[in-house]
Write a structure and sequence with these properties.
Elements: H1 2-29, E1 48-51, E2 57-61, E3 65-66, H2 76-86, H3 98-111, H4 121-130, H5 137-153, H6 156-166, E4 173-174, H7 176-184, H8 193-200, H9 215-231, H10 237-244, H11 262-276, H12 278-283, E5 287-290, H13 294-314, E6 322-323, H14 332-340, E7 349-356, E8 360-365, E9 370-374, E10 384-386, E11 389-390, E12 405-411, E13 416-419, E14 425-431, E15 438-442, E16 460-461, H15 467-475, E17 484-487, E18 512-515, H16 516-521, H17 525-535, H18 537-546, E19 566-567, H19 569-580, E20 584-585, E21 591-595, E22 601-604, E23 608-609, H20 649-652, E24 665-666, E25 669-670, E26 676-677, E27 679-680, H21 684-699, H22 715-721, E28 727-732, E29 738-745, E30 748-755, E31 765-772, E32 775-780, H23 783-798, E33 813-819, E34 833-839, H24 854-857
Parallel strand pairs: 1-5, 3-4, 23-26
Antiparallel strand pairs: 1-2, 5-21, 6-12, 7-8, 7-12, 8-9, 10-11, 12-13, 14-15, 14-30, 16-19, 17-18, 20-27, 21-22, 24-25, 28-29, 29-30, 31-32, 33-34
Length: 868
């Protein structure tokens, strides 16, 4: 019995020593133990995400990809796989596993090797959040005590959820939600059993057992996980055998981008970094919801790229990138290796010419695909000589290509064609007229080619796009749409520029006294200059500043009338928006709201609205335009209809939130008292009259059957779009360095610009296109020909399926029948007359005589008076 007593005493003594050692160890590490309660409010590092206004992911920024998930969102079999692999007794122990510790101690004593096998999931959470991965005894002691404290602070489900979201699983994926996306492009509930087993096997060796980098080792690890699940009876033998035999299907999946809009996402990213700093912006899980309309954005991108391709092709083929071989062919592997260094840019794919037939050619693309391009995809390729000159139309494929050349091809949606990377640049932006929300923004042809955002950063000369603003000022200086302005050469130059500046028309043709409506519609230069002289340069500059242009960009000389100021496309679109919304300068904005990782709104846009307060004696439901403010409109005048409610709420609100509010603006009246109201910079009547004139830019006027019809500069838009609620203006600068088209209807305003980033390079001219609609076409590039088609095709698609919105003339607008030659009142009703709109009180009071005298015709024909 003595030996038994000694054994008991020894055991008790050892136990006391053990308890003492544990207590000593605890008090030794206690000062260094962090507060585990912080895990209750831990912020997992999640990336910055940018969304469209309709909830599509545009971009994601951040080093770590993490998609936090709730415990209830994780499939039970994935939980089983993780627990069977990492910690089978997780729901039984109190943070440490004594059996695992004994096993690890035995391995250490017998082999001298330290094992990770003793670490429970709770210990791994402790290590992941608070400790390093170094294998030291003191770190292990801290880990154990932290695990015990974590178990007291959190529930088992909360601990497991932290583990599932925190674990690094390779390829920048943190947590099972991100791993499912990175390796399989799936949501968690879409994973198969072998895929879940693969993910469950990653935490211990995310690099070595990675299914992308090392598929064989990953397969072995996956099958071991499956065997553990079989051992724990979480799967059947049949399920095990089927899953173990499954092939490895993992491949890298980037962020699931729903909408490619890199220029706007870069604007949002830059805003977040400026506001919160790079580290916080990239790791705090912010969600930025932009104003971008995904459907319109795609249509704008397509229109811009197709328009750039059209310009590029009509100026000719610049030849191959290089010659890969001449007489001695190289094998396909060598060809693909040579093509590997060439990037794919907006669907333009590097390729090698493999064979040339009479009117077709065969190519091997960078992707290893053999494609045949028929003559319809080759015949455009006249030789590029200069921007102003192209070679003869080719007759055979051998006139264009030789075997062994490295070229580019693209699929245009219908067929393969020979292509090339365009050198010309372009940009477009579209705004909501009511609140200024940026609906589309394309800052260039290719973001990968150039990150320079031409919408916001490129200041280019405005050209004739400035004329509506000059004439708007003229209308507020007693001019009318019927005012005659002398369309004749200007003999008295402007000397403020230091040289004798004598503007000319383009083409250099003059028609004598011409109505203001026609002068704007046909973009007659000398009329714009004379209108500027009537206004005065100081007043004109003030008007342009009120439209949102910067005063320092506006030269104080007569070149102002022809668009010498350099401005950004965003400024142009914002200024044209004033005409679209009835005279208000709304502030453009591109972020509707920003939320944190818990979907709490931390920033909310407060846009300005184009509206005025509701009259106190008028109910919101009342017809605000019930009084007829104008004379009867005859049948031959343009049909007018009541403007539909323009509801921008749906464009600016988060799609996840219920639409409980009504429209914020109806018929120009604010429906809520707390709306920020935009400044009204011109009267609603002036905005209406300019819009009417800008409709003539597209539709022209007169009676073609009577020989009095005339085209506006944008007649191509009328042919394509065929609706009467659109208005716009072309713009071309000297020597065609910049071309513009800006236009709108009551629901959308858009600007297109085309030019070279090199400010000195001209857009040139087309010398001959054999397949043009008139057989042979030649001419200089200009706003209507170069930028206009992009706007036309975009607006045609953007408005497709939507009803026409013809604005009712506002109060204070009257109409009168005028003589088209003199602008005076007439009692005739033939083709020499037409109805015209006027601000009440400015309409003519004098009737045209049967044989009017010359001096009665002119309102502005005196060179001396022009300076008064």
């Amino acid at each position: 019995m003595k030996w038994f007593k000694r054994f008991l005493i020894a055991s008790f003594s050892l136990a006391l020593l053990g308890v003492g050692a544990i207590a000593a160890a605890y008090f030794y590490v206690l000062p260094d133990l962090p507060d585990v309660n912080t895990l209750k409010t831990v912020k997992l590092q999640t990336p910055l995400r940018i969304y469209s206004q309709d909830g599509l992911l545009i971009s994601q920024f951040g080093e770590k990809r993490r998609i936090p998930v709730e415990y209830e969102d994780v499939p039970q079999q994935l939980i089983n796989a993780v627990l069977d692999t990492e910690d089978a007794r997780f729901f039984e122990h109190k943070g440490i596993d004594p059996i695992g510790i004994v096993r690890a101690a035995t391995i250490l004593i017998t082999t001298g090797k330290k094992s990770q096998g003793a670490s429970t999931i709770t210990q791994q959470v402790a290590r992941g959040f608070f400790l390093s991965n170094e294998k030291t005894y003191i770190r292990k002691i801290k880990e154990i005590f932290l695990a015990l404290k974590i178990e007291k602070a959190l529930t088992k489900k909360e601990i497991l959820t932290l583990y599932l979201n925190r674990s690094f699983l390779g390829n920048r994926a943190y947590g099972v939600g991100a791993a499912a996306q990175v390796y399989y492009g799936k949501e968690l509930d879409e994973l198969t059993l072998p895929e879940m087993a693969m993910i469950a096997g990653l935490p211990q060796a995310p690099s070595a057992a990675n299914p992308i980098r090392n598929p064989q080792r990953a397969t072995n690890r996956r099958n071991w996980v499956l065997s553990r699940m079989l051992e724990k009876r979480n799967i059947t033998q049949a399920e095990y055998e089927e899953a173990a035999a499954a092939p490895v299907t993992a491949r890298y999946h980037g962020a699931e981008i729903d909408l490619y809009a890199p220029y706007i996402s870069e604007m949002a990213r830059d805003y977040m970094i400026q506001k919160y700093g790079r580290e916080e912006a990239y790791t705090h899980g912010y969600n930025v919801y932009t104003t971008i309309n995904s459907d319109l954005q795609r249509k704008a991108q397509t229109a811009l790229r197709n328009n750039v391709f059209a310009y590029d092709q009509r100026h000719g083929y610049r030849g191959p990138g290089k010659v890969l071989w001449t007489e001695t062919p190289i094998n396909n592997e060598q060809i693909l290796e040579a093509l590997k260094a060439k990037p794919v840019i907006q669907g333009i794919i590097p390729a090698a010419v493999m064979a040339v037939s009479e009117q077709s050619a065969e190519f091997l693309t960078k992707h290893g695909e053999r494609v045949t391009v028929e003559w319809s995809g080759l015949k455009w390729a006249r030789k590029f000589i200069t921007d102003k000159r192209q070679g003869r139309v080719p007759k055979t494929a051998s006139d264009i290509l030789n075997v062994g050349e490295q070229v580019w091809v693209r699929h245009n949606g219908d067929e393969w064609q020979l292509s090339q990377v365009p050198q010309v640049s372009s940009a477009t932006v579209s705004l909501d007229p009511v609140d200024g929300a940026i609906q589309t923004l394309v800052g260039g042809f290719s973001f990968s080619q150039s990150q320079f955002n031409r919408v916001t950063q490129a200041k280019r000369q405005l050209g004739s796009n400035i004329k509506p603003f000059i004439y708007a000022s003229a209308l507020e200086h007693d001019y009318t749409l019927a005012t005659l302005i002398n369309n004749a050469p200007i003999n008295k130059p402007d000397t403020r520029q230091g040289t004798a500046w004598r503007p000319k028309n383009s083409p250099d043709v003059y028609g004598g006294p011409t109505r203001l409506r026609v002068g704007l519609a046909q973009s007659i230069n000398v009329m714009s200059v004379r209108a500027l002289r009537h206004i005065g340069i100081d007043d004109a500059v003030d008007t342009l500043v009120s439209f949102g242009f910067d005063a320092q960009d506006l030269p104080r000389n007569e070149s102002l009338a022809l668009g010498s100021p350099s401005v950004t496309p965003l400024q142009v679109a914002s200024a044209f928006n004033v005409f679209a919304n009835g005279g208000y300068l709304v502030e453009p904005y591109y972020i509707t709201k920003i939320t944190d990782s818990y979907d709490n709104v931390i920033e909310q846009a407060e846009p300005t609205y184009a509206c005025k307060p509701m009259p106190v004696d008028v109910e919101a439901s009342q017809d605000l335009n019930s009084d007829d403010p104008f004379t009867a409109i005859p049948q031959d005048f343009e049909q007018v209809a009541e403007l539909d409610i323009n509801d921008t709420d749906s464009m600016a609100a988060n799609v996840d939130e219920p639409q409980v509010e009504g429209p914020k603006v109806i018929d120009g009246y604010c429906q809520q008292d707390n709306l920020r109201k935009a400044k009204q910079v011109i009267s609603k009547q002036t905005a209406f009259l300019i819009t009417e004139a800008l409709k003539s830019v597209i539709w022209g006027g007169g009676d073609w059957s009577k020989g009095t019809g005339w085209n506006g500069t944008a007649w191509r838009a009328a042919r394509l779009i065929k609706r009467r609620d659109i208005a716009g203006k072309t713009g071309t600068t000297n020597e065609s360095r910049d071309t513009w088209f800006s236009g709108y209807n009551p629901s959308l305003t858009s600007t297109f610009w085309v030019g070279f980033d090199d400010h000195t390079r001209q857009l040139g001219r087309t010398t001959w296109i054999a397949d043009g609609p008139e057989g042979q076409i030649s001419g200089a590039e200009a706003g209507a020909k170069t930028a206009g088609p992009g706007w036309n095709h975009f607006f045609n698609e953007a408005l497709k399926g939507t009803p026409e919105i013809i604005k009712e003339p506002p109060q204070g607008i009257v109409s009168a029948r005028i003589d088209l030659t003199t602008g005076k009142l007439t009692r005739k009703t033939d083709h020499t007359t037409s109805f015209e709109y006027f601000i009440d009180g400015t309409q003519p009071t004098e009737f045209v005589a049967d044989a009017p005298e010359t001096e009665d015709i002119f309102i502005d024909n005196s060179e001396e008076d022009l300076f008064q």
